[in-house]
């Protein structure tokens, strides 16, 4: 069963026509990667799903329910967690406060404070620090923790490895594996092709606001033509 | 000697009123980017409602509570139904100036044009004697109320979940939304709280200043000065600047009555020249 269905999405950013009819589907418990060069509309796609840049035309169904023109807090509470590009932690809040305001709807087996701290023990050590004072890697952990604490069914990850040292990026990869193993569905936007394809089950390739190619992740890895044409590899 | 102590006390108590008034203005301007020129009207309407309640019941607490809550609701409705739909400052200014005139004229119709004063609570009517000096006890009460409200607001902002939500929304409104916070509702509540505090200032101030048509504009002007000196969106700034302006205004009027406004605006100009975002404003 699909968790998320995006149908023929058209989104404008001011006057510029960014998404020109994007459709995709995320199956329960899978990771899909959205690939493509800079400026092809990957982040706009994420912003349309999360409600920040509502589409002008098209539909978004989450667990069968239309969410395309709902406010972002409502979409979040329905079960879509967002880890935005550039982390965007709340600089004036401590780690503890960020946990407090993000915690929502945890059940016994859900993402409780303890469970999230088990995944990110480093955040426990920085408990009373303001988020603005954390290192880049720690901020990325906090941004993921913030999304998990809302107990989402679907996680949107926008360029999670951006600006991280290779070693940290590798750690992040195993954390995402761990999250996936919990049954979460994930939409992963990435410039880092190897990173994305190692995690994803299925991949969509975007160019100029459209999906130009889609295939199981393993196939993309071997597809020299697609890689050369759309991914600049 | 006594002159300085008494005038300082007057200045501080007036400063506390300005704090009650400016805190809400600073929050709505700094956090929600709403320019609300009807904020002085909340002070005036609150004072008049308090006056009526005091005349009917003789209970000062009731006057404070009814004044603050009724104006708080007025603020909630204004923000929810009208102001939050306007993102353009010019539109906000035009709308709120309209409210300034309408609320002022309605007050004139209901409460008349004669300056009035709210009777003080009996317990604080007389002076009290400390050492060799005599102080008007009500002024001390006002200072006490200001300090209590300041501590309450600091606690609300820094130590509660609601405060953390507000700070998150100020840091990054979009991400606050994606964290599941209903930012629009939160802003409405904060706006209403600001209106209620201005009304609280009106009732408390109505017992030692007179209430008169036009006072809405007088206090608005001073509140704007406080917000500009203190820095947009900063409660600490509003507190420090309110006391500063209260003292400057009071000593200015007492020492150089012919230069009264100059003693406020000259320091404001100097502070702005050195710190364009105000004493505690964010860049």
Description:
The complex is a heterodimer of chains A (233) and B (283). Chain A is an alpha/beta fold and 233 residues long. Helix content of chain A is 37%, strand content 27%. In chain A, a hairpin with a 2-residue loop joins strand 1 and strand 2. The radius of gyration of chain A is 17 Å and the shape is globular. The mean pLDDT of chain A is 93. Chain B is built from 11 helices and 2 strands, in the order H-H-H-H-E-E-H-H-H-H-H-H-H. In chain B, helix 2 (39-57) packs antiparallel against helix 3 (60-82) and helix 6 packs across helix 8.
| Separation, N- and C-terminal Cα atoms of chain A | 33 Å
Strand-pairing-aware structural class of chain B: mainly alpha
Largest interface (CB < 8 Å): A-B, 25 and 19 residues
Rg of chain A computed from alpha carbons, rounded to a whole number of angstroms: 17 Å
- Please trace the helix and strand order of chain B, writing H or E for each element: HHHHEEHHHHHHH
Task: Please give the share of residues in helix of chain B.
Answer: over 70%
Strand order of the largest sheet of chain B: 1-2
The CATH topology of chain B is ABC transporter involved in vitamin B12 uptake, BtuC
Category from helices, strands and their pairing of chain A: alpha/beta
Output the helix-strand order of chain A. EEEHEEHEHHHHEHEHEEHH
The major β-sheet of chain B equals: 2 strands, antiparallel
Q: Which quaternary structure do these chains form?
A: heterodimer
Number of helices of chain B: 11
Report the top-level CATH class of chain B: Mainly Alpha
- What is the overall shape of chain A? globular
- CA radius of gyration of chain B: 19 Å
- Low-confidence blocks of residues of chain A: none
Q: What's the architecture of chain B in CATH terms?
A: Orthogonal Bundle
What would the keywords be for this entry?
heterodimer; A: 233 residues; alpha/beta; four-stranded antiparallel beta sheet; globular; B: 283 residues; ABC transporter involved in vitamin B12 uptake, BtuC; two-stranded antiparallel ribbon; 11 helices
């Amino acid at each position: 069963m699909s968790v998320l269905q995006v149908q023929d999405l058209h989104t404008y950013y001011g006057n510029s026509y960014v998404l020109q009819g994007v459709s995709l589907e995320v199956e329960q418990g899978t990771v899909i990667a959205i690939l493509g060069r800079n400026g092809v509309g990957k982040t706009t796609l994420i912003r349309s799903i999360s409600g920040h840049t509502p589409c002008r035309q098209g539909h978004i169904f989450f667990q069968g329910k239309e969410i395309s023109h709902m406010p972002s807090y409502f979409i979040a509470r329905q079960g879509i967690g967002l880890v935005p590009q550039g982390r965007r932690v709340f600089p004036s809040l401590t780690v503890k406060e960020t946990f407090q305001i993000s915690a929502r709807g945890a059940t016994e087996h859900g993402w409780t404070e303890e469970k999230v701290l088990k995944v990110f023990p480093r955040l426990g050590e920085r408990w009373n620090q303001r988020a603005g004072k954390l290192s880049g890697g720690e901020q990325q952990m906090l941004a993921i923790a913030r999304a998990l604490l809302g107990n989402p069914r679907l996680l949107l990850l926008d360029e999670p490895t951006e600006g991280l040292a290779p070693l940290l990026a590798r750690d992040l990869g195993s954390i995402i594996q761990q999250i996936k193993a919990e049954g979460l569905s994930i939409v992963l936007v990435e410039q880092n092709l190897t990173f994305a394809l190692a995690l994803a089950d299925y991949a969509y390739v975007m160019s100029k606001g459209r999906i130009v190619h889609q295939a199981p992740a393993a196939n993309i890895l071997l597809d020299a033509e697609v890689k050369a044409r759309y991914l600049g590899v | 000697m006594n002159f300085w102590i008494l005038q300082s006390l007057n200045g501080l108590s007036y400063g506390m009123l300005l704090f009650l008034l400016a805190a809400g203005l600073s929050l709505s301007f700094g956090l929600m980017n709403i320019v609300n020129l009807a904020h002085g009207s909340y002070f005036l309407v609150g004072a008049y409602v308090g006056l009526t309640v005091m005349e009917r019941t003789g209970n000062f607490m009731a006057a404070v509570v009814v004044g603050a809550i009724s104006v708080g609701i007025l603020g909630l409705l204004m923000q929810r139904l009208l102001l939050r739909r306007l993102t353009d400052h010019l539109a906000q200014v035009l709308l709120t100036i309209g409210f300034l005139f309408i609320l002022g004229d309605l007050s004139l119709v209901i409460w008349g044009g004669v300056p009035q004063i709210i009777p003080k609570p009996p317990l604080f009517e007389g002076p009290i004697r400390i050492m060799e000096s005599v102080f008007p006890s009500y002024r001390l009460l006002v200072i006490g109320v200001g300090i209590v409200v300041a501590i309450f607001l600091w606690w609300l902002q820094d130590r509660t979940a609601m405060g953390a939500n507000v700070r998150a929304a100020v840091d990054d409104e979009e991400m606050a939304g994606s964290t599941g916070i209903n930012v629009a509702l939160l802003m409405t509540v904060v706006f209403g709280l600001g209106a209620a505090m201005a009304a609280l200032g009106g009732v408390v101030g109505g017992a030692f200043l007179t209430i008169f048509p036009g006072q809405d504009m007088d206090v608005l002007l001073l509140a704007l000065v406080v917000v500009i000196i203190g820095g947009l969106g900063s409660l600490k700034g509003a507190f420090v600047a309110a006391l500063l302006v209260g003292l400057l205004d009071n000593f200015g009027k007492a020492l150089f009555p012919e230069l009264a406004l100059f003693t406020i605006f000259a320091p404001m100009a100097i502070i702005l020249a050195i710190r364009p975002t105000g004493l505690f404003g964010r860049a």
